[in-house]
Amino acid sequence: MKNDNGVRIEPGMSVEVVTQSMTNPLLNNGGRQVADAFMRIYGIDLRRAGAMNTTYLDIERIG
Asked: 15, 21, 24, 41: most buried, per Cβ within 10 A?
């Protein structure tokens, strides 16, 4: 859990992003797809919370 700059992130929050590359989506294009997905689904800005890293987010490849 993280609560910073008015943004609260809780365990269990998840998003799915589709990428064309095999690289970590947090490292690809500055994590834009992940940040956009969290904004779209939860209305939260991960960049503002300083949570755009693997300390707060787990990446799981599906398929």
From this structure: 15
